[in-house]
Amino acid sequence: MSESEILDVRELIPAQRHVIIFEKYNALQPGQSYVLVNDHDPKPLYYQFAAEHAGQFSWEYLEEGPTTWRVEIGRPAAE
């Protein structure tokens, strides 16, 4: 994978965050990813991805707090 884009949602109001995160994911081509930067563990977001995009996304923690979380979210390349 090439260098991932950064999506920093820390300055957004919480109600906007998931909408923008999923818009970014939906715009990815197979094999692409981006790095989500957040001010808390985005575990609920992971569960939403798992429910809505089961088997169609990758999720890798790059940094786990205590004040910043970074997660690489991707759309796997087609088999």
Task: Give the SSE map.
Elements lengths: L4 E4 L5 H13 L6 E6 L4 H10 L5 E7 L4 E6 L5
Parallel strand pairs: 1-2
Antiparallel strand pairs: 2-4, 3-4
Write a structural description.
- The chain is globular.
- The two termini are 15 Å apart.
- Strands 1-2-4-3 form a four-stranded mixed beta sheet, with helices on one face.
- The chain has helices at 14-26, 43-52; strands at residues 5-8, 33-38, 58-64, 69-74.
- It contains two helices and four strands; from the N terminus they run βαβαββ.
- The mean pLDDT is 94.
- By secondary structure, it is of the alpha+beta class.
Shape: globular
Helix count from the secondary structure assignment: 2
> Structural class of the helix and strand makeup?
alpha+beta
How helical, in percent, are the residues? 25-40%
How much of the sequence lies in strands comes to 25-35%
Distance between the termini: 15 Å
Element-by-element helix/strand order: EHEHEE
- Strand order within the widest sheet? 1-2-4-3
In short:
With 79 residues, the chain is an alpha+beta fold.
Labels describing this entry:
globular, 79 residues, 4-stranded mixed sheet, alpha+beta, 2 helices
